[in-house]
Design a protein that fits this description.
The chain is an all-alpha fold. It contains 24 helices and 2 strands. It has a two-stranded antiparallel sheet. It is elongated and about 85 Å long. The relative contact order is 0.05.
């Protein structure tokens, strides 16, 4: 963890500016600091960026993010502290020539690299993905690059394959599924350039984002009240469905992990159990998604079980009710939900032919025990 900077550790000239009169402090926050070397100037600006005075803090932040080339180059050419490296790396990760120099510094903290991996663009993610020794020693970097939408799909595949080959487990929601899928796929060496699949994956992310609902989330299929009616994909989601259908299993799993709710609602019904389970485990799944999917009659019981293992997704009583009435809901999940209903509602469910026979029997047994 990167600790806050202690202004008391500033060098003499920098300390004089930091504790000086208001005008001198203002000039220091603007980067005008006579007698202060570039590495010390970085720390002086960090100190101002963490001070209590709003104007100075905002000025220093702006200065840190827009350093003149001579100051930035002078800083990275010198020996920097852990904190100086961190503040430069998180602000200049898009400048690969700067970041590559910072990454080569032995003082760089792993938390700095992780913070960059969360937000960096494609070029920087490629740079971070080259140091296999560091990746294997710190799987958190693999995790963050995989979850970063700017990381190429081919690079994400190589990262997963690297971890699997070296028996390193990565803390991803769908790690088990991603690890299983990668062993059956050919890993292509892109030679440093995006592959056609990379471009298609990025395009599909964009398509899914364009379909994202900014209000109430709607299901991508039209669910009928008639239990015998076939569920139909809504017309506006057909293009996204076709693009997803052409993806490999590994691509679908990552798409399920980082995609939009609409993409996830398509992927939970994928024919591959690896993909459907990855979608069910996705960190992008929320209560609104589960509420829609719980109404489907062709959903996998394993997907519903995966939802049930995340209590924060089942807080809505309407969702619990739909799950109880869903013929695909396993008895083990129904048992967890029973206590949320009044006896009279459980009795109605126990007589409802749309509820699975095993759940109806479970309800009858539960109600009989309650009467004793």
């Amino acid at each position: 963890m990167i600790t806050p900077f202690d202004p008391a550790t500033l060098t003499g000239p920098a300390q004089k500016i930091f504790t000086g009169p208001p005008k001198m402090r203002e000039m220091g926050a603007r980067g005008v600091a006579l007698g202060v070397t570039p590495p010390d100037l970085i720390l002086l600006l960090v100190a101002f960026s963490q001070c209590e005075e709003t104007a100075l803090r905002e000025t220093a932040e702006k200065t840190l993010s827009n350093l003149p080339p001579q100051v930035l180059n002078g800083a990275i050419a010198a020996k920097l502290t852990v904190l100086a490296i961190h503040h430069l790396a998180v602000r200049y990760h898009a400048k690969t020539e700067v970041l590559s120099t910072l990454l080569a510094m032995p003082e760089i903290d792993i938390d700095t690299i992780c913070d960059v991996a969360k937000v960096c663009g494609e070029e920087t993610s490629e740079l971070l993905a080259t140091n296999e020794e560091r990746l294997l020693a710190n799987p958190r970097i693999i995790e963050l690059l995989y979850l970063n939408k700017h990381t190429r799909m081919s690079t994400a595949d190589r990262l997963i394959e690297l971890a699997v080959r070296n028996q390193v487990e990565v803390n991803l929601p769908a790690w088990k599924e991603a690890a299983a899928a990668i062993q059956n796929e050919l890993i292509i060496d892109s030679g440093g350039e995006p592959t056609p699949d990379d471009l298609i994956f990025a395009q599909n992310i964009s398509i899914a984002e364009s379909l994202r609902s900014h209000g109430d989330i709607e299901d991508v299929v039209a669910v009928s009240d008639d239990p015998n009616a076939e569920e139909q994909l809504k017309e506006k989601y057909v293009p996204l469905y076709r693009e997803i259908a052409a993806m490999t299993t590994s691509q679908k799993i990552r798409f399920a992990t980082i995609g939009s709710p609409e993409a996830i609602m398509i992927l939970v019904n994928d024919a591959s159990p690896l993909v459907s389970m990855a979608a069910a485990k996705s960190p992008q799944v929320n209560e609104a998604v589960v509420e829609q999917v719980a109404k489907r009659r062709n959903i996998s019981g394993d997907v519903l079980t995966a939802f049930g293992q995340r209590p924060e997704l089942l807080r809505r009583l309407s969702t619990k009710r739909d799950l109880m009435k869903n013929p695909k809901t396993p008895p083990s999940l129904a048992m967890k939900l029973i206590s949320h209903f009044q006896p009279h509602e459980l009795e109605r469910m126990a007589q409802d032919r749309n509820v699975s026979g095993s759940v109806r029997q479970l309800l009858k047994n539960y109600l009989e025990r309650k009467k004793r």
